Each structure stands twice: as C-alpha cells, then as structure tokens.
Amino acid sequence: MSLRGRIFAVIGIMVVAAFIQTGAVVWLHRERNASEEAMSSSAQRFDHQTRMGRVVMELENVQLSYLLTGQSAFRVDFDRHWAEYAILPTQLGQYIKDENDKRALTELDAQLRRWHQLVTDLMDRRDQLTDVPRVVAEQTSPPMRQIQNALDSAQRQDLAELLRNIANAQDLNLRNSIVAIALPAVNIIMLLVLVAVLARILLDPLAAIAESARQISGGNFDVRLPPAKRDEIGALIKAFGDMTTAVQRRQHDLTDALSREREISQMYAALRANAEQESARLQATIATVPAALVILEAPSGHVVLQNAAADMLIGREPDAEGDRQAYWESFHASYRDGRHCPVDEWGPRRALRGEVVVGQELVVKPQGGTPIPILVSAAPLRNDLGAITGAVAAFQDITNLYEVDRLKNEFVSVVSHELRTPLTSIKGSLQLLLAEVPMPDPDHRVLMDVALTNTDRLVRIINDILDISKIEAGKLELNRRPFDAHELVNLSIQSVGQIAKGSSVTLTPVVPVDIPKVYADPDRTIQAIVNLLSNALKYAPARSDVTIEARPEPPGLVTFAISDKGRGIPPEKLCQLFQKFQQIDGADTRKFRGTGLGLAITKALVEMQGGTVAVVSEVGKGSTFSLTIPVVR
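RE: above sequence
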C-alpha cells in the first residue's frame, strides 16, 4: 500500500470517528432540548393549574361573602375573578397534549360554568332568599367540592409529571457531562495514535534523509539511506540518492567554473585598468581643448564633466538642485537678432531631448557681467538600446568673429556709400546721352543700353548691401503708420509691371473689399512685397499667372501671399532661402542673376514690423511666399 493510501486510511478512520462523535453529540443535544422543552411545558401547565385552583377558591369565598352579607363589593370581586378565570382554560389547554386530559379539562370547565350560572342566579335573587346558609349548603357547596376535588387531582398529576421531567433532564445533563468529558479523552487518544502512525510511516524516514543531508552539506557524500519502499517515501529516498550523485558531479563542475571565473576576473581587472587609463587620457584631452566642453547627464541635466575653458566661460554650477536652476536662469541669453532665448532652448537642453544642434549662435550675459557671443553645438549621448543617457556640448567664444563681422560691415557700408555716388552720376550721364545725343549707329545704342542696365544692377546691389548693413547694425529706422492693404498691393504691382510685361506673365491681385488697414512702414513693406514678386516673375514660366493675395488672419494680422507656377524649390533648399547671399543653385544663379540678399532683407523688414515670412513649395508645381503684417489696433 502506498504512503498516500496509508495516510488517507488513517485520516478516513479519524473522520469516521469524528462523524460518530458528532452524531452522538447532536443526538444528546436533541434529547436534552426535548427534555428541557417537556420540563418547561410541565412547569407552565402546573403553574396555570395552580392559578386556576386559586381563582376557583377565590370565587367560592367571594360568592359566599356576597350571599351572606349582600355587599356589592363582593359582587364586583366575583365578576373580576370570573373574568380572570375565563382565559385560564384556553392558556392551560396549550400545554396539554394528552386527549384524555384535554377532555377532563373541558368537563371541569363545563362544571365550573354551570356552577357560575347557578351562583349568578342566586346572587340576582338574594333579596328573595329566606335561608341563605341552607341554600349555600344545599345548592352551591356540593358542586364546588366536586370541582375542587377534580382540580386537586389534576394538580397532583401535573406535579408528578413535572417531577418526572425534572428527573429526566437531570439524567440527560449527567450523561452530557460524561460525554463532554469522555470525547476530549477519546480525541487525544486518537490523535496520539495518528501521530504514532505518521511518525512510523513518514517522520522516521524523513529524519534519516535529513541526517544524510546534513552529512552531505558537511562534504561527506558516503551516506547510507534507508531502504526504498514502493511508496512516496521510497521515491523520495531514490530521488535523494540521485540528487546526491548529481550534487557530487556538479561540485566538480563548480570547481572548474571557479577556476575559470578567477581567470575572467583577472582579465576584467586588466581591462578595467586599461579603461581607467583611457578615461584619464580622455579627460586630459578634454581639459586641454581650447573650446569649452560640457557633458551633462539625463534626465536631470546636471553637469558631470567640464574642462578649464568651460570654467572660464560659464563657471561651475552649484551642487544643490534649487541652486543649479537659479544658476542657469541667472544667464540672460538672446539670439543675434535680440530675441530672448530661454534656458530650455539652449543647445545642451535641446540635445537632452534628442536634437542635434550645430552652430547655435547666442549672446550670453552672466549676472553682473558683460555680454559674450558664443557658438553652441550639442549632441545627445545614447546607450546600446538607443536611450538618451546624457549630452555633450561645446561652447566657443566668438567675440573675435563678431568684431571681424563688425569691421566687414563697416567696410562694406563705407565702400557702398562711396560707390553709390559715382554710380548715380554714371547712370544719369548714360540716361542723358541716350535721351539727348543721337547715336552714330545701332551698335552704339546697344552698348549704351547694356551700360545703363548694368549700372542699374550695380545700384540695386549697392542699395541691398546698404540695407542689410543698416539692418544688422540696428540703424534702419521704420516709419510705421496705418496704411490701406489695397494700396500696398497696387503700388507693389506697379513697381514690377514692366518686368511682368517683359516676361509675358500676368499679375493677378486678390484682395477682399473689407480687408482691414495694416500698421506698417509703407515703403519698406512695398520693398518686401516687390522682392517676393520679382522672384516669382523670375521663375514663373511665360504666359502663366502670378497671384498676390491679401487676407486677414487671426489674431490681428494680414497675410500677403505671392504664388507662382514655377518649377518649385526642393525641400532641402528651403532652409537656405532667407540667408544672406543664398540662391537656389548654380544653374539658376547663372540664368537669374542677383545678389542673394532680397529674401534676407524681406525677412528682416517683416520681422522688424512684428510679422513673419514663410514659404510653401512643391517641385514641379510652384511656390507660395507669404508675409504677415499686423493690422491697426
């Protein structure tokens, strides 16, 4: 028989014994409840029987007193005692189960009611009675003695029944007490038997296995296990033996693995030493780089490494979190055009968000210091999974480049001013010659026209250079005032009308009648629109339309959009359009000659008036350049 079967058999015997005990307890409990119920019923029956005897005796005494004395109070007491008696037979009947007893009670009640009727008649005729004692002795006393005899017999019978029930209850209580004492003893004996059986079939083999396990843990694999039987303990003993063999084999494997681990640890130590050496070299290299280098960790943005150049340029951030935030916010940074640059838009912070920043030009003013123009480049650092772990940023002080740019602008401005005067004279002279002096032959006129055209081109170049120089130097002044948007569109179209006619291109204005007035410098706004129209006419194919549309835009702006049907601009070229001296490509530069300053000037003029410029283009379908100007408020 298996170990499980033996255990289940013992448990089954225990369960059967428990059921038998439970049944015995339940049966005794039911017997005790029945005995207590019978005793309670007998007690109630005896109590009601006694009350009935007392009430009957009171009735007899009161009727006798009334018949002898004639006092009305006795008549009232008689009626009250009869009312008390009237409910007693019904209450007593609830506790009588035997049919004979019920018939005896009914007969007794009938006798008493006949007696009551007799007595009531006598009381009503008392004044007519001549010998009351004789009437009582002959008419009322004999039936009352029969009634009292019956009541006494019933009381004795009920008392005997009550005493029997009390004796039965005491006997059952004694038996319950004996069972209550005997059951724990039986349970203890059965539990001891169960423990002995389980110890024999389960604990002894397990103790032997535990002792073997202790010897194996001490390194002694030569252990003797109990003989394996054909049960679960036998299977456990066999498995323990197999485990012992496997542990012994794995101990040899572990010894070999530890030997290999020592070799790997030595290799790791050597690699770590090399890495520390390379890290020291890298830190030395960073420390000697002239540019300010900073390495930040993600996501806190805390600076973990910076070189001496960074210490001199931006200092060192505090260790406390609150102080670090205040330290970086103490720097006032702005773009070159004067717009404020928040700390979160600096190159290092953008790199922590995954952006690669190249050549971000900022003017940084430390608290209580002088503004420093710097060039910022930054890139995120990622781990093998591609997650951002930090960022590296380089800050370069470009104060010298700013000075060189200032000197260049001054030189360009001086040269432009000096060139514009003689060019104006040359242009006037050529126009006078063409208008007043006859040419000897057509070739001379062609040469004069070419000279005048190139002179006009040089004048435009000089004007563009002067405008961009004034804008960059902050010396260009605007005369802003309310101006009609229709007038801006019409004047701009008039300025390029001849160019459009020569290119066989139609200019189409689209302006709503109720468009609001704009608050702008009319001359500079027309200059910006004309620059966009000129570019559209250059690239628009012959016999096509160039549309100039003005439309109100929320909040409080008017958009001027110039659309052409040229060949469009590649997406990778769009970011270069509004930079200085930039044109689409070499082929276009040769076909449509220009300085590359028009769009840069347009962008600057619009932004100085609180507007923006934008371009949307699709290769092969055309382009739409737009600028926004604030309306009159």
